[in-house]
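Table 4 source record.
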Amino acid sequence: MKKTIMKCGVSAVVLGSLLAAGQAFAHGYISSPKARYIQCAENGIENPSHPACIAAKAAGNGGLYTPQEVAVGGVKDNHEFFIPDGRLCSANRSNLFGMDLARTDWPATAVNAGPRTFTWTNTAAHKTMYFRYYITKQGYNHSQPLRWSDLELIHDSGKADQEAVSNHVVNLPARTGRHIVYSIWQRDWERDAAEGFYQCVDVDFGGGTTSSVASTSSSVKSSSSVASSVASSVSGDTCSNLPAWNASSTYTNPQQVKHNNKRYQANYWTQGNDPTTNSGQYSYWLDLGACAGTPTSSSVASSAVVVSSSSKSSSVAVSSVASSTATGTCTSPAYVNGTSYANGAKVQNAGSEYQCTVAGWCTVGGPYAPGTGWAWANAWNLVRSCN
């Protein structure tokens, strides 16, 4: 009997260890555009500097050490039963209640209406029933806690097998201002388990007098200023429409600035970090190269700019821009996946120069990456070979 008990005890210990080890493996999070949890984790879990992340830490953000475990077991498609209104971003996990704070200043990614690739990085792959994406309705009040009734479904991936990385091209509807994209990864309870994972992604469509296709949040002051920025892009001056870096201003991905005659893009929220000394893949800024290129002889064939505005939004459309016919080494900046590109912007990628024709798709990257993505021709025109 003692031997039997001892064997059972050893088995229990081994089983408990295996279960603990299995639970220790995290599962998944949205890495692009960066989810709220990732934004604050990168801002500093122990000593954040962003006001929203500071407030989140005070309210409880211990779960930021494991943002891939914003999960609820056994939900089996019954998310609203397990997660009450006001607790959607934390998945009702007390160690993440700070993520539910109703604020208007969460670090947000600038987006446009149209297709956008969302990437789940799955640190433990599972069989999937679906990945669903929701977005807050137009007019959503960020000063109120997020409720299920605030959301509308915009994408359902359907079933999938185990994936280390899951990419979904989500068609973002027309919106103005800041919104929340809410995503649910439901494990396949028929082939796997009934666990659900949840992610809040803060996005900003711009609004009022803010252009939805500009590479930064610069205001659209007049049609002539937009035409000028497009002409500058064609001529090789890649920074003429960018604001100068200001140490007192705050920036978030994918905003860009000019500084010391160079172009930089924010990797995530930053303030006071000089791009010259804080650039790199994992630093505050990404160095996109020198501003001024060698002007070409091309000109804007038809730089007519149509500005249609209402009380809620304004849009900018560039009717057409002449392609450069110059030969020799290209002077346009290198293409950076995920960067915001306006219609008419030129980049070089894979040995050739390309010009953006559909800003919403140029910004998506991935399948629309110029010259390399399978759908690039829907977003870019080939200008010339750079060789």
